[in-house]
Amino acid sequence: MEGLKKAAIASFVISMLVLLGGGWLAKDRVPPYPLQIISEGTEISGKTEIIKGQNAYQRYGLMDLGSVWGHGTLRGLDFSATTLNLTGRHMREYYAEKSGKAYAALDSDAAAAIDAKVIREIKTNNYDPVTGVLTLPPSQAYAFLKVREYWREAMVNGDNTYGLQAKAMKELSETVTVGDFFFWTAWAAGTLRPGENSTYTNNWPPDVTVGNAMMTDALLWSVAGILAFFIVLGIVIYAVHRYRILYGEEKAVETGSLMMNLPLTLSQVRAAKFFVVVTALFILQTCMGGLLAHYTVSPGTFFPDFIATLVPYSWAKSWHLQLAIFWIATTWIGASIYLAPVISGKEPKGQGLLVNILFVAVVLVAVGSLAGTALGAKGYFTENTWFWFGHQGWEFLESGRFWQWLLFVGLIAWLVIVYRGMKDKLFGADKDNSGVVMFYLVSAVMVVGFFGFGFFYGKGSHLTISDYWRWFVVHLWVEGIFEFFGVAIISLFLVMMGLVKKESAMRVAYFSAILVFASGIIGTAHHYFWYGGPSYWLALGAVFASLEPIPMILLVVRAWKEYGAIQDAGKDFPYRWPLFFLTASSFWNFLGAGMFGFSINLPIINYFEHGTYLTANHGHAALFGVYGMLSISLMLFSWRSLVKNEYWNNGLLKTIFWLLNGGLFLMVVSVLLPEGLIQTFMVYKHGVWFARSPEFYNMPVILALNKFRIVPDTIIITGAILLGYFLASTYFRIKPVKCGEGEDIYYGKSCKML
Question: What's the predicted TM-score (pTM) here?
Answer without folding.
Answer: 0.92
